[in-house]
Write a structure and sequence with these properties.
The chain contains five helices and nine strands. It has helices spanning about 1-5, 40-55, 75-80, 165-170, 170-185, and strands spanning about 30, 60, 80-85, 90-95, 110-115, 125, 130-135, 140-150, 155-160. Strand 8 and strand 9 (about 155-160) form a beta hairpin.
């Protein structure tokens, strides 16, 4: 979006597409990777969440979890599945797979190192939150959920707070994780963690 590229440092910015009540019409899934934590317009924020409540699948990446946190509404947080208002310092994170039998996490390591990332603090987990992986907080002295699933109304949501830097987002393991989460949210992942027929990666 060209408009948003000009205001990348303004966290009060309201992304123009969201001002249309039917902004998600025609989409099979929406990937959120935005960082607008200072937006306070409740009606605007509720309008972002509503299509997901109505059934549009969502993938929530990194700072999307901190977006709209200044708004006095819980609808975005309910959509995410968790409330988080801050993170610990940027450092290496040891990610622990806590749902090895779930299709999204099958075949992933029991533990892996995510270098130079931010650990978002879980302040509240909403009722349909399902944890998939955690990392330990050095400041808080407890585990925080960094990969999860959520159900919000009729919508299925995959989320991860990992991905502060390009080195994480370019990692094949991370890309596989997000692809699986996206497929799961759309109902296109089988019980073994493989894409349903017709949704496999194209061979080069």
């Amino acid at each position: 979006m060209h408009e948003e590229s000009r205001v990348k440092d303004d966290r009060t910015h309201q992304v123009s597409i969201y001002k249309n009540a039917d902004w998600a019409k025609g989409y099979d899934v929406v990937i959120h990777n935005e960082c607008f934590g200072a937006v306070t317009d409740v009606e605007f924020v509720n309008g972002i969440a509503k299509p997901h409540f109505d059934g549009v699948p969502a993938v929530m990446l990194h700072c999307s979890t901190h977006s709209y946190r200044a708004a006095k509404t819980d609808e975005w947080r309910k959509c995410l599945g968790q409330t988080s208002m801050s993170h610990e310092k940027n450092r290496d994170l040891k990610v622990r797979n806590v749902a090895e039998d779930h299709p999204v996490m099958k075949g992933f390591p029991k533990e892996w190192l995510d270098t130079k990332d931010e650990l978002y603090k879980n302040e509240k987990l909403w009722e349909n939150f399902k944890p998939l992986a955690t990392a330990y907080g050095e400041d808080t002295k407890k585990d925080h959920h960094v990969i999860w699933l959520n159900e919000y109304g009729q919508g299925k949501v995959f989320g991860t707070t990992l991905g502060h830097g390009n080195h994480t987002m370019e990692d094949p393991l991370y890309l596989d994780l997000v692809a699986r989460g996206l497929l799961w949210s759309c109902g296109k992942l089988d019980d073994s963690g493989k894409p349903l027929p017709g949704y496999e990666a194209k061979q080069k």
